[in-house]
Design goal:
188 residues; eight-stranded mixed sheet
């Protein structure tokens, strides 16, 4: 059975998207060499990237560009080479290399994919997916990068979760730029 993981950056007050939708807060603060190496290392994994339509469109508008290759070459290479699934009932075509559009119910589709052999499935962003998948008990691992900022309002990646989900801390890592990486696994 393959693993389903989520990687999201959140504010200290738990929002993965600001109330305005501006992602600038994710890039604030002093960047350091250790953090750059961490980000590049994450992008070199052999995973299938999973997106909702909005996150997919945002990522697809940046990562295949020359600007992305110049700014973050290792990350751009990993993002562009990885196989990608985008869940959307409205997206007619996907031009980003390696993308498959999935029109079906994400919970049913990912439950089936988890039962098949293959690489880890990693949800990036995509709050419309995380909440329902967490509520269905399908997410095996939560990788959360906490940014040293308080947004005051925004969107939680766990919208729609109506009961507690017990997790156990698997690892932590603090960076000089103030960000902290937390990895939680399902407790049961």
């Amino acid at each position: 059975m393959r693993k389903l993981s989520v990687f999201n950056q959140v504010s200290i007050d738990g929002y993965f998207r600001s109330s305005t939708g501006d992602p600038g807060w994710m890039h604030q603060g002093r960047d350091d060499e250790e953090f750059r190496a961490f980000v590049s290392g994450n992008a070199s994994g052999a995973s299938v990237l999973v997106f909702g339509r909005r996150t997919y469109e945002m990522m697809a508008s940046f990562w295949p560009t020359p600007a992305a290759a110049a700014q973050m070459p290792a990350v751009a290479k990993g993002m562009n080479e990885a196989p990608k699934l985008v869940f959307s009932r409205t997206l007619a075509r996907a031009d980003w290399r390696g993308t498959t559009i999935v029109k079906g119910d994400p919970v049913a589709e990912l439950r089936q994919l988890k039962g098949e052999p293959g690489p880890t499935l990693v949800i990036l962003g995509s709050g419309s997916l995380v909440g329902p998948l967490a509520a269905a008990g399908l997410i095996d691992e939560y990788e959360v990068l906490v940014a040293p900022v308080i947004l005051g309002a925004g969107r939680s990646m766990f919208e729609g979760v109506e009961r507690p989900i017990d997790l156990k801390l698997a690892s932590t890592r603090a960076f000089k730029n103030g960000k902290t990486f937390l990895v939680y696994e399902r407790a049961t």
